[in-house]
Amino acid sequence: MSIATSHPSISAIATAIPSSSSSSSSSKSSKSCSYSSLFHVHLKSSTSRCMRRASCRAMVQQAVQGAPAAYAKEMERLSAKESLLLAFKDAGGFEALVSGKTSDMQKIDVNERITGLERLNPTPRPTTSPFLEGRWNFEWFGSGNPGLFATRFIFENFPSSLANLSKMDVFFKDGNAKITANMRLLNSIESKVVLSTKLSVEGPLRMKEEYVEGVLLSPTVIEDGVPEQLKGALGQAVNALQQLPAPILDAVASGLKVPLSGSFQRLFMISYLDEEILIIRNTAGMPEVLTRLDAPPSSLGESIPEYES
């Protein structure tokens, strides 16, 4: 009788313990599986880290390359703006433009600089931009401009010593515009013609302008500028005006109004807009350049477009 037979507990223990050969084989197999798993985990982790590094490197490289490009474009835009303003000054400004003293070379130089600035337009939807609202001063305009009617009338019928157009501005607000032409007669009498128009948004760049009303405001006399030979006649005219009935005086004080609804309209495109400069082109492609007179809006946000594509 063997010890294992005579002692059942020892037999059970012997059965539970594997032989040395099977134990060694199982251990090697387990270690092999463990090393293989660790290798695949390490390989996956390394691949993931490499991909992350490559992605980060690409992002950093793009940022490094993009920042100088954006900076260079902005510097180019600011330089183009300064160049255009200097071209206006060299051409003699608004007075030389409306009096016909601007030369052909100066005109083509200004138009070349206008085109150069337009291609750097920072506002993709100018017709709905808050930058559009506010008061703007006309620096340059071509044929088809609403203020050109007053300009042609003045310079075709009166010599510059008798009447001239000193400046012209426009005020945009809530889909409406008021264009004011400031005239001076005999260098001593100032008068204003105001055109009221209604604006309709027809696209991200295109708008329609309909004339509503024209008003000829009562003139203001600059007494220091009145020639001596005209002071007597001017005094008589003022006395005669004061003797008019009150309703007529009130009408004169508020200005002579001319309804224009349905008479005139035009389409134009805003080709450039930022916080300081506005460029408009009419259907003939003639540019109008305006500079802001008041403080620009603090917000750059775009309003909801009011047109149908």
3D architecture notes:
The structure is a single chain. By secondary structure, the protein is α+β, with helices and mostly antiparallel strands. It is built from 8 helices and 10 strands. The protein has helices spanning 3-6, 8-16, 20-90, 93-99, 104-118, 148-157, 228-242, 246-254, and strands at residues 134-140, 163-173, 176-185, 189-201, 206-216, 220-221, 256-259, 265-273, 277-282, 287-292. It has an 8-stranded antiparallel barrel. Helix 3 runs antiparallel to helix 5 (104-118).
Key traits:
309 residues; 26% strand; 8 helices; alpha+beta; disordered C terminus; disordered N terminus; 8-stranded antiparallel beta barrel
Tally of separate helices: 8
What letter string, H or E per element, gives the SSE order?
A: HHHHHEHEEEEEHHEEEE
In terms of per-residue confidence, which ranges show pLDDT below 50 for 5 or more consecutive residues? 1-36, 299-309
Strand order of the largest sheet: 1-2-3-4-5-8-9-10
Rounded radius of gyration (Å): 40 Å
**Helix coverage percent:** 40-55%
Strand content: 25-35%
Summed over residues and divided by their number, the pLDDT gives a mean of: 73
- Shape annotation: globular
Structural class determined from secondary elements: alpha+beta
Distance between the termini: 104 Å
Largest sheet: 8 strands, antiparallel, barrel
